[in-house]
Design a protein that fits this description.
Number of helices: 28
Radius of gyration: 34 Å
Structural class: alpha+beta
Largest sheet: 7 strands, mixed
Shape: elongated
Strand order of the largest sheet: 14-26-25-24-15-22-23
Strand content: 15-25%
């Protein structure tokens, strides 16, 4: 958990190169993001661009000697989008950028609300007047009234839309605003013809199209804000200030001014300002933001702590070990951002289509207009058929009004935004849910692959087991109690530095045994230890240690072999000149491993254990959790070979779970690599998914979350395609009025966002038949 997720640190720049981050509030879909990316990539000196419509961010890698920040801003504005905030990565902190982004988002939302109000009030008045004018009696001066009422709607509230459309066209790109401008400006100007030549008024349509477009934009901003709230919550989790020792005095500083090595004082109830090591004090720390577990963790001298976690108990003195972008929280945020900006293969076709969508729609609208003018006889029967059940269809209008209505309907009903929103909104919600649960999904591709995973390869040590030796068994000879045997063994092992010895000492302390002092201690390499404890000579180790001292051990051979067959390390304990008993130490199972294996099987995934440990120990652990297929004594290259073997024989994909350096190559070779967060940095860097905690049930949650997220992506793409496939032909045939079309267009985008938000209700099972897991990330 405390490992630095170095692969999230971003791209490092060589001399002369820089990375800039631009916040683009209006970049709300992948279609918009593609336009921004293309505009930036055209610049001479830009080496690469990574965009995230989820966070409305563009990350640009450029040569600072050829490109300036102002130049990047102008490129985005030429594409029809404004830049809310911009910074060079080596100039400003992430927290400062986040504050600028929030300010820009708030200003953008306020402006959208103001434009909406400015548009809706006149439009409502127009609609109130339109009904009696059309169905009761003509209103004197009606055309003058609606023309004046529509002017602020189309030209003041809609000014940003028209400006964006003009910039977009000048930049040789076409965004959604082009369609809205073409759907509102021509009807308004054609409506002015009514002052000199009697004809059907289109002014009402111009105002309504713009008003509903602005309503949709406002609602979309609010909905997208909810979808991206996971990142926002993470950004607000950190402490704002820190109490630091400087020149013998305690001063309060902004967290941004902390440096590695600073000594911080953290009182009960306060957040720990940054990652560090406890120098003084004991406490309980709520690490739920990182692990998803609500039970506080005991912390004492020498323990590591994470920034933004909550000190619930005593007063702590903590030395800062990581600050700024190197902290755990900053790396989590970076990983979530990478996931939200990553590509899902299923989206690539949709992206290619939306890239040509707007020009194609403009061409189709022009074709529709000409078709109605040239072949009205072929199309009028469709209108006459539709008028029987569609009240807005009027076959008695002239050919020109019908042609104009159909062409405008095609323009405003077509919706590339729904297609562009399908993937990023689902990824935003899914990756945010994962971050709250301690599951960091770094790749959109992994989300798609997870649905086809049929084999999951598990390392043993640190994955299925705890990866730390622990006392498991104590047996006493006649004349001794188990407590006496364990106390004697712990006394001599307390002077040893061996991990197995420490496990015995910890086991004795856990049973409330006081560790006695040892004298004349001696460690015999590869054999064991011995020393005087309370006047008695105690030996603990292999049988050869006791045999060399003339103590017979033959009677214990069978009992020792039985424990060793269970994968345990056994040590005989002798007091004076006789065997007092024996103790066993083993790498114990994680408590949730068996439930996780059962859950894998219930999901149609077959678990396999591949380990470097010996066959006997591996088989014993596998039998305990229910894994049938085992590969033991495998070297790192053997783990890669095992992954490839199952890839060849599997009717599906292979996932690999590991935590050590020896797992890195296999994690990279697997279709999906899953790293335990407490493992080695190199393993974490090689993985597609990182688990903050080492619980195997988190892998089950990760699979469930990925499958649920991909399911939402498929649903979103399906409904977006169905909408366009059905709506555009109906509009071209004259069966959909433009005012209804713009409402349907708005509804399609909101439906996609709303469907993605429903992902938060997904039941991420952790065991067969498990109910929905409890909330596990307490913000704040």
């Amino acid at each position: 958990m405390t490992q630095i997720l170095k692969s999230a640190a971003g791209k490092t720049s060589a001399a002369g190169n820089s990375t800039a981050v631009l916040h683009v509030p209006g970049m709300c879909s992948d279609h918009c993001a593609g336009i921004v990316r293309e505009s930036l990539e055209r610049m001479d000196g830009v080496e690469g661009v990574r965009v995230s419509s989820g966070r409305r961010r563009a990350e640009v890698f450029f040569d600072r000697e050829r490109v300036s920040l102002d130049g990047l801003r102008e490129a985005v504005e030429r594409a029809g989008y404004e830049v809310g905030a911009i910074r060079r990565e080596d100039q400003e902190s992430e927290g400062s950028m986040a504050a600028d982004e929030e300010s820009a988002e708030a200003a953008y939302a306020r402006r959208a609300r103001r434009n909406l109000l400015l548009a809706m009030v006149p439009t409502v008045l127009i609609m109130i007047l339109m009904a009696p004018h059309m169905f009761l009696a003509p209103i004197p001066g009606y055309l003058v009234i609606i023309t004046l009422l529509a002017f602020p709607v189309v030209f003041i509230a809609g000014l940003e839309t028209h400006r964006s459309a003009w910039r977009s066209l000048r930049n040789r790109s076409a965004n959604m605003d082009v369609l809205i401008s073409l759907g509102s400006l021509p009807p308004y100007f054609i409506g002015l013809v009514g002052f000199v030549y009697p004809m059907t008024s289109f002014t009402e349509m111009a105002a309504t199209i713009m008003a509903f477009h602005l309503l949709g934009r406002f609602l979309e901003i609010r909905a997208k804000g909810r979808a991206s709230q996971a990142i926002r919550k993470l950004l607000h989790l950190g402490a704002r200030t820190a109490r630091v020792e400087r020149d013998g005095a305690e001063v309060e500083l902004p967290v941004s001014e902390l440096a590695v090595g600073d000594i911080m004082t953290v009182r009960p109830g306060e957040k720990i300002p940054t990652d560090g090591e406890v120098l003084e004090g004991e406490s309980q720390v709520d690490e739920s933001l990182a692990t998803g577990e609500s039970v506080p963790v005991e912390k004492g001298v020498g323990d590591s702590v994470l920034g933004a976690t909550l000190n619930q108990g005593g007063r702590l003195k903590v030395r800062a070990t990581r600050v700024g972008r190197e902290t755990f929280l900053a790396q989590v945020i970076k990983l979530v951002e990478e996931a939200q900006s990553s590509r899902v293969p299923i989206q690539e076709f949709a992206d290619r289509v939306t890239g040509y969508f707007v020009p194609a729609v403009v061409g189709l609208a022009l074709t529709t207009f000409l078709a109605w003018l040239l072949f009205p006889g072929a199309l009028l029967p469709v209108i006459e058929w539709g008028s029987a059940f569609l009240p807005w269809v009027n076959p008695e209008l002239g050919t020109l009004p019908l042609a104009l209505l159909a062409a405008v309907a095609v323009l405003v009903i077509s919706c590339p935004c729904a297609l562009g929103l399908a993937t990023p909104t689902a990824l935003m919600v899914g990756s945010g849910m994962g971050a709250e649960r301690g599951i960091l999904i770094r790749s959109g591709e992994a989300i798609q692959i997870f649905k086809d995973v049929r084999w999951i390869i598990l390392d043993k040590t640190g994955t299925v087991t705890k990866g730390q030796p622990a006392l498991t068994d104590v047996r006493a000879a006649d004349g001794f109690s188990e407590t006496e045997v364990l106390a004697a063994a712990a006394a001599v092992e307390a002077a040893s530095e061996h991990p197995l010895g420490r496990a015995i000492v910890e086991g004795a302390r856990g049973r409330g045994i006081e560790i006695a002092a040892v004298e004349r201690f001696k460690s015999i390499s590869a054999h064991g230890v011995e020393g005087d404890v309370e006047g008695r000579r105690v030996r603990a180790g292999k049988p050869v240690l006791l045999n060399d001292a003339g103590i017979g051990t033959e009677a214990w051979t069978g009992a020792m072999r039985a424990w060793e067959d269970e994968g345990k390390t056994v040590m005989l304990v002798a007091v004076d000149e006789r065997v007092a008993g024996m103790v066993a130490v083993a790498d114990t199972l994680k408590p949730e491993s068996k439930a996780a294996v059962e859950a894998f099987r219930a999901m149609g995934i077959t678990p396999v254990m591949v380990t470097g440990d010996n066959e006997r120990a591996a088989r014993h652990v596998a039998a305990q959790v229910g894994i049938e297929e085992v590969r033991a004594g495998v070297l790192p290259e053997g783990k890669v070979a095992a992954v490839r073997e199952f890839q060849e024989r599997a009717n599906g994909k292979v996932a690999m779970v590991g935590d050590g350096i020896n797992d890195a190559a296999a994690l990279k070779s697997a279709d999906v690599g899953i790293a335990i967060g407490a493992g080695a940095d190199v393993a974490i860097e090689a993985a597609d998914v990182t688990l903050v905690t080492g619980e195997l049930t988190k892998v089950v949650e990760a699979v469930s979350l990925s499958r649920a997220t991909f399911g939402k992506i498929k649903q979103n793409l399906f409904w977006a395609w169905v909408y366009n496939v059905i709506a555009i032909p109906m509009a071209a045939a004259g069966l959909l009025h433009p005012m209804i079309g713009v409402v349907a267009m708005t509804a399609s985008s909101l439906t996609v966002v709303g469907n993605s938000l429903l992902l938060r209700r997904a039941n991420l099972r952790t065991s067969p038949g498990a109910s929905k897991p409890r909330p596990c990330c307490r913000q704040g």
